[in-house]
Design brief:
- Strands 1-2 form a two-stranded antiparallel sheet.
- It has helices spanning 21-36, 54-65; strands spanning 15-16, 52-53.
- Helices cover 37% and strands 5% of the residues.
C-alpha cells in the first residue's frame, strides 16, 4: 500500500533520500570512530541529497526487476 498520497509533489507521494544499508552502516561506524577520537560534535549527512518519490522508486524497481509491483493508494 502507498499511503502517503497527499504531498505537494509531482506524483503526490512522499520523497525520500534512499541509501544502501551497507553505506548506512559504514557511515555509522565512521561516526562512532570519530566520537571515540573526541572530535567534538559533528554532523554527517548519510544521504546523497537527491530525493526519490515512493512511486518513482516503485517504477525503478519494476524496471530493474522486469516485474510489475502491485500496489494501491490508500489513506493514511
Amino acid at each position: 500500500n502507498v499511503t502517503d498520497t497527499d504531498y505537494d509533489t509531482s506524483d503526490r507521494t512522499g520523497v525520500r533520500d534512499y541509501i544502501h544499508v551497507v553505506h548506512f552502516a559504514t557511515g555509522h561506524i565512521t561516526c562512532m570512530k570519530k566520537f571515540k577520537e573526541n572530535c567534538g560534535l559533528q554532523i554527517y549527512n548519510l544521504g546523497i541529497g537527491k530525493g526519490c518519490s515512493i512511486l518513482e522508486m516503485i517504477k525503478i524497481l519494476e524496471k530493474v526487476s522486469g516485474k510489475t509491483i502491485a500496489y494501491k493508494e490508500c489513506p493514511r
